[in-house]
Amino acid sequence: MRYGFWMPVFGGWLRNVPDEGMEASWAYAKRLTQRAEKIGYDLTLIAELNLNDIKGIEQPALDAWSTAAALAAVTESIELMVAVRPNFHHPALFAKAAANIDRIANGRLALNVVSSWWADEARQYGLQFDQHDDRYARTEEWLQVVDGLWSEERFDFQGQFYNTEAAICSPKPARKPVVYAGGESEKAKAMIAARCDAYVMHGDPVEAVAPKIADMAARREAVGGAPMQYGMAAYAIVRDSEAEAKRELARITSVTELPAGYANFDQWLSGTQLEREMKIAEYSVSNRGLRPNLVGTPEQLRERIAEYEAAGLDLLLLQMSPQEEEMERFAAQVIGTA
Fold first, then answer.
1. What does the longest C-alpha to C-alpha distance in the chain come to?
2. Cα radius of gyration rounded to whole Å, the chain
3. Cβ-based neighbours of 157, under 8 Å, separated by 6 or more
4. Three-state secondary structure along the chain?
5. Cα end-to-end distance, the chain, whole Å
6. C-alpha dihedral over 35, 39, 44, 46, to 10 degrees?
7. Angle at which helices 186-195 and 132-151 pack, to 10 degrees?
8. 157, burial (CB in 10 Å: exposed 0-12, middle 13-18, buried 19+)
9. pLDDT at residue number 258
10. Most confidently modeled of 11-15, 117-121, 166-170, 280-284?
């Protein structure tokens, strides 16, 4: 199993806890990532939203790509998986900038391609927001342009959304970045199987994740692609006793009133085609992070992780709070690296 962590670009992950002691700042992001390298983490996922989806839209949120470029220069081994939304980035200009960041990182850049869901954010920034199926059609074209510029000396493309004429991207990436993507609709799965290298999922119990991996592996084989990687989001709480872990779980999921960001969550649900209904209690953390139940003693967490590994999962993308302290504990007691 590879272990990654979500960069707390929003100042934390708990929607019901206003101050988690990890500000949305470059200083914290740098310190956290440099320490993560030393204690055995393989990857960081840097989410891209211009508005703060966790603490409310008025609160600070770090820009993903300038943060990634800065981290590329001050880290040595950790993979930088950076979210990118096609309707926010012209693919030809993005290919040029991302290739340079990958050069700075010496081949450690990866993409998490996200077909945008937040209509209000796009409207505020004056950007096109497509309906569900069109978002994935745009993403597929976008990936073709980026890959073409990274693969060919000059690249011509004429599509519904994008056009290039003998476009040049030089220098190219040191290593072509791995492309991760997630989605639960038929359109999303078809696009990912055809165009991406890895499938990332929201959190779910292992009995729900195993058939998803099997389904995507079959789709990939049908289109003749190389085997994919599989990752999943999860929120982790590790304590010396199960009772301690459950007390922490109760603290973060207690909802006395709906927080400032709930309207964004409601809009996200209306703009997606999730396979399972989400509950208000799960709003306390993002990306269905509590469903994998990585809550308990080190032994319990290792057993559950082994079950996911047996189902074909390659990567855990972890959220914790406060991130720095909890990542130290997880590395020492679960991974065994700190």
1. 63
2. 19
3. 141, 144, 145, 148, 163, 164, 167
4. CEEEEECCCCCCCCCCCCCCCCCCCHHHHHHHHHHHHHCCCCEEEECCCCCCCCCCCCCCCCCHHHHHHHHHHHCCCCEEEEEECHHHCCHHHHHHHHHHHHHHCCCCEEEEECCCCCHHHHHHCCCCCCCHHHHHHHHHHHHHHHHHHHHCCCEEEECCCCEEEEECCCCCCCCCCEEEECCCCHHHHHHHHHHCCEEEECCCCHHHHHHHHHHHHHHHHHHCCCCCEEEEEEEEEECCCHHHHHHHHHHHHCCCCCCCCHHHHHHHHHCCCCCCCCCHHHHHCCCCCCCCCEEECHHHHHHHHHHHHHCCCCEEEEECCCHHHHHHHHHHHHHCCC
5. 16
6. -30
7. 10
8. middle
9. 56
10. 166-170
Q: Which residue has the tokens 């993409």?
A: 111
**What gap in Å lies between CA 78 and CA 288, rounded to an integer?**
25
Count of residues making up the chain: 338
Tokens 């006793």 appear where? 241
Note the pLDDT tens digit of each residue in 215-265: 999 999 999 999 999 999 999 999 999 999 999 999 998 766 655 555 555
Q: Which two tokens stand for residue 269?
A: 């649900």
Tens of pLDDT, residue by residue over 62-103, are 999 999 999 999 999 999 999 999 999 999 999 999 999 999
